[in-house]
Design a protein that fits this description.
With 210 residues, this protein is an all-beta fold. The protein is built from no helices and 26 strands.
Length: 210
């Protein structure tokens, strides 16, 4: 005889799975839900959420990824009604309703840590300033209209929050000023956040004219 000889451990005990397949202890698989003994030929899959083994009878096939999840890790999406595993669902950051991730959208407002929240169509509001969706809104003190926090600016002079169209950015310092606080230079007609008084004659004007 030629060739290498390989030794293998002798099988001392075998078991029948529920389908009548003979398997050894090393090949036994067990459904995490019904605890039935199975083998690899019995169509077992691991849950995409917890990686536990599921048999064909107990597992729930996800309509999104096609995986088979444990019953407790799968539920019907309230939007489309499909049975979807929880690995393919996320909760809306505003209302907390779990649903398919494809029904959610990114909030336009970034969190302080840079995290992007996912929000559902029911909670999302389109900002009239930037046309982006968000749940983080504030009210313009001039118009009374809601804008996202990205569009609202605090007036440098009075500190009030104002939305697009109700403030201007001064070319002098690059800061926002609400329409109430801005003034016109009586000499050049330039919009300016402040008037400077001439020390000689007492006349007022923008910094460029005085």
């Amino acid at each position: 005889l030629s060739g290498d000889f390989h030794t293998a451990a002798l099988t001392t005990a075998v078991v029948l799975d529920r389908s009548g397949h003979i398997i050894c202890d090393d090949c036994i698989q067990q459904c995490a839900t019904c605890a039935e003994v199975l083998c690899a030929r019995c169509d077992v899959e691991r849950c995409p959420v917890c990686a536990a083994i599921n048999c064909e009878s107990c597992g729930r096939t996800c309509a999104a990824c096609g995986g088979r999840a444990c019953p407790q890790h799968s539920s019907r999406c309230p939007v489309c009604g499909d049975e979807v595993c929880h690995a393919c669902q996320s909760a809306c950051a505003a209302c907390g309703v779990l649903q398919c991730r494809s029904h959610l959208q990114a909030d336009n407002h970034l969190q302080a840590n840079g995290h992007v929240e996912l929000i559902c169509a029911t909670c999302a509001v389109r900002c009239p300033g930037c046309q982006q969706f968000t749940v983080h809104l504030g009210v313009c003190t001039t118009s009374g209209q809601r804008f996202c926090l990205e569009c609202l600016k605090p007036c440098t002079t009075c500190g009030r929050l104002v939305g697009p169209g109700f403030y201007y950015v001064s070319p002098l310092d690059g800061k926002p000023y609400c329409n109430t606080c801005r003034v016109l230079c009586p000499h050049c007609g330039t919009v300016t956040p402040l008037l400077v008084t001439c020390k000689t004659c007492g006349a007022e004007g923008c910094p460029s004219c005085t």
